[in-house]
Amino acid sequence: MNERQQVELIFEPQDEGGFTVYSPELPGLITEGDTLESAERNAQEALELYVESMRDRGQPLGREIVRRTVIVPA
Asked: Which residue range forms the structural domain that includes residue 9?
């Protein structure tokens, strides 16, 4: 695949501090970090390992996610 694929990563702040990181498009990819910067580094490493694992198993990467923006009720 020559085309570069993009995935969305969610950085969710935790009550006890730090961030949990996951991607709706990549089930099972989850990591964390004490700061946003460390969470970003950990997410990059987790993504690289995830992609390598999927390719080694001959599985397609990601799934099509449908996104909609909705208004929050008042």
From this structure: 1-46
